[in-house]
Amino acid sequence: MKKRTFAALLAALLLTVSGCTATPTAQETPTNEEIALYTSRIAELEATLQKERENRFISDSAYEGRIQELEQQLLALSPDTETGSDITDETMIFHYRLEGNKAIVTGYDGTSTLVTVPSTLDGYAVIAIGERAFEGTSVAAVILPQGLEAIGWFAFYGCEKLIDVSIPASVTSIGYAVFDGCPNIAIVCGADTYAARYAESYGLPRVIL
After folding, report:
1. Strand 120-121 to strand 124-129: parallel, antiparallel, or no bridges (unpaired)?
2. What distances in angstroms separate CA 96 from CA 57, 130, 200, one per listed residue?
């Protein structure tokens, strides 16, 4: 006798629940082997989907990075630019772009490894740390400002010396792989905050304020 498929079992169950009458037949329970195969297939498809998402993001990021580079070159030739940099002191230099009248940090060229991101840059409120803004830098500790709302994908990716990042309660969005490649990272945050839940979900050490 051929083994009944999951689709056939589901159809039989639906007929029973809907009250339809049918000639009673012996229903076969899926074997452990069938269940394991089904579960394995689901996990495989989920992993493939996640990989496709990552590859798509990396491809899109490379494209967007090139576009931004060209836009910055063009804007540098224009008297009215919407990008800039702010030097808070001799050791901390932040680059940013504007969305409306809000600043998004796009890069850090400072020599200080103990970084405090200001709440404003050139008078513009800082609302986000952009994608890859601190990627690969030698920062050891970063304090993010109150009023910050989001941290973009790969923002601190590959910061091998990074020990802790202080994230305010105002942050409600943290992107993918923000702290990948940061083996000693700890998240400093409030107990009942988005950052605390993010750290817990990713298994990152937390220092609760």
Report:
1. antiparallel
2. 21, 8, 30
Burial class (CB in 10 A: 0-12, 13-18, 19+), 123: exposed
* Both structure tokens of 133: 């803004």
Q: Tell me: the pLDDT tens digits for 162-178?
A: 999 999 999 999 999 99
Instruction: Enter the tokens of residue 97.
Output: 């772009």
Q: How far is CA 107 from CA 118, 140, 166, in A?
A: 13, 16, 18
Q: Tell me the C-alpha distance between 179 and 162, whole Å.
A: 9
User: Which of these, 115, 114, 96, 116, lies nearest to 106 by C-alpha position?
Assistant: 96
pLDDT at 46 (0 to 100) = 75
- Under 8 Å between Cβ of 94 and 86: yes
Single-letter code of the amino acid located at 1: M
Burial of 36 (0-12, 13-18, 19+ CB in 10 A): exposed
Task: Please report the pLDDT score of residue 38 as a whole number.
Answer: 79
Whether residue 144 is predicted with pLDDT greater than 70 in this model: the reply is yes
Q: Which residues of 125-136 are buried (b: 16+ CB within 10 A; e: fewer)?
A: ebbbbbbbbbbe
pLDDT, residue 11, reads: 54
The model's pTM is: 0.61
Query: CA 208, CA 196: separation in Å to the nearest integer?
Result: 8
3-class DSSP assignment, residue 157 = coil
